[in-house]
Design brief:
It is built from eleven helices and eight strands. By secondary structure, it is an alpha+beta fold. It folds into two domains: 76 residues, Winged helix-like DNA-binding domain superfamily/Winged helix DNA-binding domain (Arc Repressor Mutant, subunit A); 167 residues, 2-Layer Sandwich (Beta-Lactamase), CATH 3.30.450. A six-stranded antiparallel β-sheet has the order 5-4-3-8-7-6, with helices on both faces. Strand 7 and strand 8 form a beta hairpin. The longest helix is centred in the C-terminal third of the chain and has 19 residues. It starts with 18 loop residues before the first helix and ends with a helix.
Length: 263
């Protein structure tokens, strides 16, 4: 599964669906417009989809009637609606990997006192399926379900280090930076992956959020390919002096999850 790519030519560039399938594809494209934007106006949606403002308005109205988007009466802008949140929560609750990971995440948080995550790869990105918050990280990190470029996260880097397909997808999508410490080139990326393979775990030092450090380990199948990753994140001043200890705990939890999943 990879992120849909909107083009200047509009949704017609995505393939050749017709009739009802085209309408469905356009509706899904509309929802994807909000992946990186908290709210959008009708003109912005129309421009991203390559459709007229009237068409965009009709689609947004229909989506609003079903609860998939909602309109801010003060600004006239649209944002994702609660129905999508409900569906996302239902999907997460039915995820086997999430269900089996939760006790391990609880134990890892108890042992470390840090915020802990479960993430899975999606192309050149990672999607967070679970987060148990603790300390300062609880206030500085976004909500569960957000996706990030893999090269900017500990979980993404440890997955990419042992999965050439994820690493290749990262190179194709480029190296967007969030902080001055973020990886910005393929040379730096490849160097980081070599270091991770040597250590067996990833350290993400203020590359996603300034002042926060992550330690991550892969949940790999019997062939060595990561299917997920566990990580902990905390204030750099608290985590940086205990990397080896934190890595030992995260790696043990990741290996246990792999066994529980029967990988």
């Amino acid at each position: 599964m990879s992120d849909p790519q909107l083009t200047a030519g509009g949704v017609a560039d995505r393939g050749a669906p017709h009739g009802g399938l085209q309408s469905l594809a356009t509706s899904l494209d509309l929802l994807d417009c909000f992946a990186d934007a908290e709210s959008l106006g009708v003109s912005q949606v129309a421009r991203q989809l390559g459709v007229s403002k009237s068409s965009a308005h009709r689609m947004l109205t229909t989506m609003g009637d079903r609860g998939f988007v909602e309109r801010d009466e003060e600004t006239g802008r649209y944002r994702l609606g609660m129905r999508l949140y409900e569906l996302g929560q239902a999907a997460a609750a039915r995820s086997k990997v999430r269900r089996l990971a939760m006790p391990l995440l609880e134990d890892l948080r108890r042992r470390t006192g840090q915020t802990v995550h479960l993430a899975v790869p999606d192309g050149g990105e990672v999607v967070y399926l679970a987060r148990l918050s603790s300390g300062a990280a609880a206030h500085q990190l976004g909500q569960v379900g957000l996706r990030f470029p893999a090269h900017t996260t500990g979980s993404g880097k440890v997955i990419a280090a042992f999965d050439p397909a994820v690493a290749a997808a990262c190179r194709v999508q480029g190296f967007r930076s969030f902080t001055p410490s973020s990886i910005r080139s393929s040379v730096d990326f490849d160097r980081a992956l070599v270091d991770i393979r040597r250590r067996g775990y990833a350290v993400n030092d203020q590359e996603t959020v300034h002042g926060m450090t992550t330690v991550a380990a892969a949940v790999s199948d019997h062939t060595g390919v990561p299917r997920a990753a566990l990580s902990l994140v905390g204030e750099s001043r608290l985590v940086s002096g205990h990397i080896a200890d934190e890595a030992r705990l995260v790696t043990a939890a990741a290996n246990k999850l792999a066994r529980v999943l029967g990988l």
